Amino acid sequence: MSDQNQGRAAPSASPPIEDLTIDGDRPAPDTAGQRLSSAVFAFEHAMIVTAIVMMIVAYVLMVLWNNARLQYDQFDQIILKIAGYSTPQETPAEALEFITTVVSRIVLVVILFGLALLAVRTRDRSKLAPGEVAGPTNWPRRLGLAALVTAGLWGFVKLISVLPSQAPIGAALVILLVVGLLSFRERMAVAGELRGGTGPSLFAGLNLRGLAGVGGGLVLGWVVSMALGEGMASGIVALAAAVAGLAVLVIGKVGLDASQPGGDARASGRNGRSRPRSAAAGAVGPPEDGPEASAEGGAGATDTADGPTGVSIPGGGRSPVGTSGVLPLIIGGLAGLAVVFAVVDFDNQAIPGFIGLCLAFALIVSFMGPTIAGVFGAIVGAGLLGWYIFMKAGPQYDWTSGLTGILLLYVGFLGASMATHEGKHITVDAIRKSLKSHTYHLYNVIGDVVTLVFTGFLGLMAVRYLVHIREGAELHPASELPVWAAVVPIGFAFTMMVIRFGLRIAVSWAAWRRREPAPELKPELH
User: Fold this and answer.
1) Mean pLDDT, residues 211-217 taken together
2) Three-state SS for 427?
3) What does the pLDDT look like over 327-350, one tens digit per residue?
4) Structure confidence by residue, pLDDT tens digits, 352-362
5) Is the distance from CB of 136 to CB of 363 less than 8 angstroms?
6) Are 373 and 42 spatial neighbours (Cβ–Cβ below 8 Å)?
7) What is the pLDDT of residue 336?
8) Rounded to whole angstroms, how far apart are CA atoms 494 and 500?
9) CA dist 487 to 134, 444, 454, Å?
10) Which of 151, 228, 356, 432 gives the lowest tally of CB atoms within 10 Å of its CB?
């Protein structure tokens, strides 16, 4: 940052890696590091939502199925106790049959009808505008809708008791996927209206050249691995290719046309005030003047001499479809090579191979852009769950406890990775909040370095354990899935956390070198 701008923009409290949200309330990612982290965040978010919804659906259906197949369910026993009988065994046969087949069913229908009537009433009132008074109640319509809802719930419970588990779970997966895709579309439209019709669009951040490079790297890697023979496609080569791709992404001018003139162009902010970009701020820092950026004297902006890593993207920080330049092809090619070398002979140096595969996956997702990455995450999550349900799960619901246990690991560790992206991980603020000078940023650097080392150690231990149990081919007893499938999110999440903490360190280090003062921290609730 130049001296003339040093006192104008206040630095962020804990430099977050800004993500492009499709709610339209946050600045769009402006740099390569931000775009990568935001795209991975969108993928993780979609995976977590899919897993949570499936856990809820599977548990509810399991409870309904178990109660429907009992001779005397929990509701029957409650009615028996109200009638004065402790257990079904102590109840006379005639009274037991009358209570369980007639009385309990009538009471259950009445309760369901009352709940449905309240739901219809709430739905009607929710349509009223603020301050609008409800008109006369249309009781025939309301009672009819309540009766239909009650009949539908009763029939649904009866279907659950006779259908195999694959049918309702599969239907729930399809509904979840369709609703998720429609939700993405609706949220994109709302975000476009909030931003004056300028975006973000479905293809925000999509980089066709990068994806084309990935395809070329996959083909080239397969040809090379077949030519060199077994043993040459090792994990070390995969890790080296992925790290090289990540380095080129962060250091290179990826985002706009790298060949277009304007190397001295300055990124201008929302109010048209020109500002040069520093190296670290260009790498991962958020835009100083908000999400809307343009470039002076051209259709795009390139970097200043002291800011080779950052580019300012017009239209809310969104890179255009089919970003030009050769660097996306190179990065995509390296990511494709890493995938092939890691997968073709995974057992050959599996630990670096898995880490390289995670890095390569992050690079590939970054070329999709946040929106398509979120759709991709929903499709992947629903597809994997669908494969398990139709290929592994039995007709009964005894598999649900095992699957939900594994999904809980995915939710927990992917959620931890998402918290790192948003800067919501646990921090010790007693000392940091008392620092007012530029030493605040140095303190952040030291803390993030310690966290990065600790996180990297835990991630390495997780990957080592994953490789170890994969060699044993041990199966999870309740779900019949390989045990290593439950460890994959741990290694992946820690790898993404290491990348994100590395980006944070770069932001804080650059702020300390520029001697930026500590930000004014707002009061927080604890």
Assistant:
1) 92
2) coil
3) 889 999 999 999 998 888 787 788
4) 999 999 999 99
5) no
6) yes
7) 93
8) 10
9) 55, 30, 18
10) 228
**Closest-CA residue to 357 (of 465, 242, 469):** 242
Q: Rounded distance, CA 80 to CA 362, Å?
A: 58
How many Å apart are CA 235 and CA 340, to the nearest integer? 10
Lookup result for tokens 């399809």: 174
Residue 207 has a pLDDT of 85
What is the sign of the dihedral through the CA atoms of 335, 336, 339 and 341?
negative
pLDDT above 50 (res 366):
yes
Instruction: Answer yes or no: are the C-beta atoms of 366 and 284 closer than 8 Å.
Output: no
Averaged pLDDT, 440-445: 85
Q: Is the pLDDT of residue 214 over 90?
A: yes
Closest among 363, 406, 412 to 384, alpha carbons compared:
406
- Alpha-carbon distance of 144 to 5, in angstroms, equals 67
The CA distance from 440 to 442, in Å, is 5
Which of 234, 503, 220, 206 has the alpha carbon at shortest distance from 357? 234
Average pLDDT over residues 245-266: 54
Can you point out the beta strands (E) in 97-196?
Answer: none
**Torsion 177-182-186-192 (CA) sign:** positive
517 CB neighbour count, 10 Å cutoff: 17
**Strand ranges (E), 70-225:** none
Q: Comparing C-alpha atoms, which of 358, 412, 316, 417 is closest to residue 41? A: 417
